[in-house]
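sry for the spam today, last one i promise. struct tokens for design, 278 residues
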């Protein structure tokens, strides 16, 4: 399998290290449509995977301060790539975000059929817009919505490393998270089937940061400590609101893909993290 990968950041780099097949990283500027078309023609991939996008680095405040750059990447770039793949009859897997929701949908979690309900920051707005464009204009492509990537390799974008640098962490709010190894397995599994539409690619069941930190202290750093604060207290510290949401995995499981339970998957990942980063 030959993959043409757009985006060589945290996730794009890990994808290239861990999946089977030939990985070619794109040099094209996503804002330049003809450049993207020529890249696809030159490489002639089996699958294009898009990890590119502005997330704000370690937090989404950046996107609210750099709206032009965020729109160029998260909207214009996504549309150009999808249109180019459509023109060249090439299958696209676009990695997007589940941070278009807030809450747990009255205990049910948000499915792929639920409309976005979160408008608290510009990053989430652009993600909701891009998902709508792909859903209406390019339904033949695959959109995978992830939440808060967790991995066993150190990186500032890794949720493990983010939380371990915070002295204050919110309490009492359940979240869905995505273990990176499970995401990459899902890309291979769903890509081989050439499935289309939106899928939530998170681990089964939500987790609170208290549970996350308790596992981190047990398995990685027994000396770590932090103060737990309310979401209201956090909103006084950050520039924009944060999305705390629970996504369902029913649709993903119906494909036959094995979705690991979040606490089991997190413990496995933290054990690898501790062993890898001694």
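last one done:
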């Amino acid at each position: 399998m030959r993959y043409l990968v757009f985006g060589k950041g945290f996730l794009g780099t890990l994808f290239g290290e861990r999946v089977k097949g030939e990985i070619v990283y794109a040099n094209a500027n996503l804002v330049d449509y003809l450049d993207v078309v020529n890249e696809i023609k030159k490489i002639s991939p089996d699958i294009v995977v898009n990890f590119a996008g502005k997330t704000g680095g370690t937090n989404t405040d950046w996107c609210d301060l750099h709206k032009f750059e965020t729109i160029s990447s998260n909207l214009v770039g996504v549309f150009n790539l999808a249109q180019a793949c459509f023109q060249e009859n090439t299958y696209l897997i676009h990695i997007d975000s589940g941070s278009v929701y807030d809450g747990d949908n009255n205990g049910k979690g948000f499915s792929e059929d639920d409309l976005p309900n979160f408008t608290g920051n510009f990053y989430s707005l652009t993600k909701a817009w891009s998902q709508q464009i792909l859903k209406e204009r390019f339904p033949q492509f695959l959109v995978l919505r992830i939440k808060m990537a967790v991995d066993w390799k150190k990186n500032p974008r890794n949720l493990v490393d983010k939380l371990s640098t915070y002295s204050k962490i919110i309490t009492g709010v359940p979240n869905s998270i995505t273990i990176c190894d499970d995401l990459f397995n899902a890309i291979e599994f769903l890509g081989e089937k050439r499935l289309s539409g939106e899928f939530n690619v998170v681990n089964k069941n939500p987790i609170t940061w208290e549970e996350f930190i308790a596992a981190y202290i047990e398995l990685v750093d027994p000396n770590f400590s932090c103060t737990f604060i309310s979401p209201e207290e956090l909103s006084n510290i950050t520039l924009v609101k944060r999305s705390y949401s629970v996504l369902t995995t029913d649709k993903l499981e119906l494909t036959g893909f094995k979705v690991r339970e979040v606490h089991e998957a997190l413990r496995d990942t933290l054990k690898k993290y501790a062993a890898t980063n001694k």
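The radius of gyration is 18 Å. ok im logging off now
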